[in-house]
Amino acid sequence: MKLLRAFAICVCMALPVFAFAADPGAPANVQVMDDADEPRGTVLIVTWEEPAEAERPADLQLVGYQILISESGEPFEVASNVYLDEGTEAQIGDLKPWPWPPYFVTLAAVYAPPGLGFHYLVDEDGVVTDTRAVVVHSDPVGPVRPQGHWFNVEYTPILLLALLLCAIIIFTIYSVRGRAEDVYIRPIAGLEAVNDAIGRATEMGQPIVYVSGLSGIGSISTIASMLILGHLTRRSAAYETEILVPCNDPLGMTTEREIVSQAYTEAGKPDAYRPENIFFVTESQFGYVAAVDGIMLREEPAACFYMGYFFAEALILAETGNETGAIQIAGTDADTQLPFFITACDYTLMGEELYAASAYLSRQPLLVAQLRGQDIAKTILAALIVAGAAAATYAAVSTGVLAEAAQRFVEWFAV
Amino acid sequence: MPEVLPATEIFGVSVEIIGVWLAAFLTLAIFSFLYQDNPVYKLAEHIFVGISAGYGVVITWHEAVIPLLINPLFRPEQAGLEAPNYVVLVPGVLGLLMFSRFVPRYDWLSRWPIAFVMGLYSGLTIPSSVQGFLLPQLHATLLPIWPGVEINAWTAVSNFLLVTGVVCTLAYFYFSREHRGALGAVSTVGIFFLMVAFGAGFGNTVMARVSLLIGRVQFLYHDWWFPHVLEPLMQLLGG
Question: Which of A32, A145, A230, A327 is disulfide-compatible with A102, CB 3.0–4.6 A?
């Protein structure tokens, strides 16, 4: 039974092979091999020689080649068309990745009457449909299996750097545990003002508006923003100061409701939590901005917080908030929007200050340790930059083995 | 089922003309916000928010739910498959769990898809940030800072400023040490570099915004005011 099955499989594998047989005028010496420079194993390279002049059909001229491919047992399909001036080597890309199935490949020489270009002969799928064309197939080559690599050597620096950064963070979490309160975190003006903003809102009896950016829940800055929202709500809940959170991401809204609800509970005011204050507006960028602008003008909040990733709407939001006279605190890692927040807001958390904010406000050992770890990583990066610049300078001004080694050091970081 | 063609006229007026008038009205309504909040702005705002939210639902249905969930499960031939792909049930069920928010007793189930999305993105961000930002920026900073065979004096000065700026700015974002002494001096230089960069960014973006405003004003004048207001008025007055 096993023998019969093996025979049947062999017949199926061979079927496409017999579908084409080389005729005079077919490309010669067709070879198919794995692209060794492509680590995913999704590219094959096909090389061939032009058909001999004597074998070509009379009154027709060679206009190009057609590469056909078949996954074992499947009919042949056009993989690509190669024009005559593109040489005698081509790639077949976008093949199936792991487990890298084997393929049969055949190459067809396409002949046409003089003056008729290759592109006139094929339909939109690349199949030669013009009856004036003559297509001569080579013998199928195969089975050829692309070779994928489990480890992409080119990406070694990425792996090492990621491992180094993770190791530093894990080490600092281990070393800081139990003494997070003792770790120094430099004052950040924008965060010092958070209490003032909450106090102002409480005194005025006006709400706080919190906008957590427009980059969705998957963005790191949104996650950082949500941590800040939790701390902010915990403090404002203690004074029962209302906080309005218009959302532009449904998933973000759900998460923010959870965070705010949790914060109210932790502040001992679960009854003061109003889920309708955290509401979805729209996913449209400017639709959202128009709505938030309207809310700010009508509700006249005492404080506005813009924390997260922002795009062109940054200035529109901050300007409107400024119009209402609210105290405004912004924080973003969108470097193109930072200038606008700096101009229009009272305080701005720049770049990584946004990530540091949650550690600064909460003093949670895990977050403080992360911050410490990031500082160590920054020191290493600064040292690498100085060493790399020195190596690049040495490689530029001198020659010899040392200069080559210096150049190799610099190039190691090129991915 | 007969094909339904879009209307070209409404009450004898071309749809295009109605569109231009609507666009002009909504543009002016939004601009009226520059004066102060008013009912016309509120109308435009509510139209904008309502239409964009509704449009978002339709897009999600047609671009995500149908091609990524319904077709692979129930109409595999339309998804280019020979048999139903039951793997899509996993994201499908995760998505459906979000509806548990409507049942307070089981609303905790909605945390699963949120946890999945946040975990997935956090995991993806680490290697992609190292590959896409950290290493390319690091490599782009490793530059010769002294004139050599292929480096002229100006390039060397430019490279020196770049390397110094990056190191000093990094020092500014050092949080676990007091910014005093050498660290304080270096981070102060970093702040200068940041402010210069922000100034350049500000100017650049303001220019882009002004060009957007010009585009809008051109629309108002060329597409609406001149052909639909001024010209008919002139014809009416026999000009």
Answer: A145
